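Contributing new records

If you add data, match the layout below exactly. Sequence lines come first and carry their own label; structure lines follow with theirs. Keep one chain per record. Anything else will be rejected by the validation script.
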Amino acid sequence: MQLAWFPDGKSLLIGTSIRVGGTTQDSLWHVLPLERRTHLLSNGFREPAIASDGRILCMAREDVYRAIWIMEADGSGARRLKEPGGPVVRYDSATWSMTGRRIVYLAYSGSGAYDPGSRVLHGIRLESCDLEGGAETPILTSEWLGAGWQTARFICWLPDGRLLYSLPDSTQSQDRWDVWAIAVDPNSGSVQGRAVRAFSVLGGQAWDLTCSADGKRLALVKGRAQLDVYLCALEDEGRRLGPPRRLTLDERNDSPIGWTPDGRDVLFVSVRTQSANVYRQGIDQRYASTLLEPPRTTQHAVFTADGGWILYHPDPLPGIERPAGLARLAETGGSPVAVPGSDSTWFPVQCGCRVGAMCVFSVCADGRYVFYQLDTSEWKAREMARVEVPPKDWRSFWHLSPDGMRVALEVGGRTRIIDLRTGSEISPLPAGRHALELLGWAADGGLWLGLGDGQGSRIVHADLSGATREVGTLDYFSSVCASPDGRYLAFDRETYEANAWLVEGF
């Protein structure tokens, strides 16, 4: 997974991560390509970086890749150079100065929490230290350090003292990353001057920055990850998944959030202009259209069961304060209208897809979800049920059944089903099946669940009597939505592309 040249220019250091029998084995190997010889340097380490004298920085599985290790060129004398403590919860992305007297790395403080929506790690500092782990010198702090799906070696210390690092551009576009340069003394670590943009990379993210010995050429990898919406037909009366086919054919990130009530169009979120919006695309169409006419945008929208109304949470328009709550728009068009009495706590709103099914929203308060029915004839809300949720599971998401009478939510790794009419809990899964990931409701009133096996997820159907059946396997995904007519599953699939580039004159 990683490789680097030793200073002699004749041998390579290769870091591997091999999955064997359900566990991952890491190791570092010394390879002489011209002689076709290789030998093991050390087990349990990965992500190596080599100094000008051959010493190695790396990360170790035994401390969950939170500490920085240093060892000799032959793999001996391994010791922790930096380990978490105080406000720092982990270290990452360590590399050497060209003199080999200091290292530079990322220090994550506070929670270091990962936000899957923006792919940002908060509380991150770029700093350097000496070879005893002391004399720490801060370089810069940015909430976008460590952003992106690939962060390997996005730091490079040039012979002229400039430190290069890559960040997404200020609009957080997936199509542009900027490589910045800041002068840092390679012996003392002191910062000299302000950071300046060295160059921009269009069409993807930049990582694996390495420079030639004279510092005049820079090699990097430019790549991108992209989410697209795929469809799988449910064949043999829902007993088997058919082959997946790609629905969205653009070059943007697309993730499904639902369907139109007739099961003909998929709703998905995408960033195709300056902000995210909801789009709709027919299952046999090549192109999508916006659900809302510009400049209105939203990232969450749903149809009422009769298809007559679109309910959505408006994003703010330029120069206008964020609307107080929920808005409704006739499917035939016209101007949106605010739902009386709604506010920003009415989230999310979901609607059943069967004839006469109601819409439901939740409000989080005092350690519980409070569920309300929204009457779409008079646009009034009434409380239906309350569900206690432990603080550690506060961000649990819920799904509304096709008839609008039940909600399913995953709390503490366990699927719970609540009957909104009585507030009572249903236990649909037999012993040993509660660890399955909740994906959503099936059109027949059962549940779709996922069981990860390291190569994807086995898709499991469970009915409310507890009977389960596996229907097939899907590759890695983050969102699955079943069509109201029971014919399809819509899901997102992430694909990758990457190429090596050479940069001069930076």
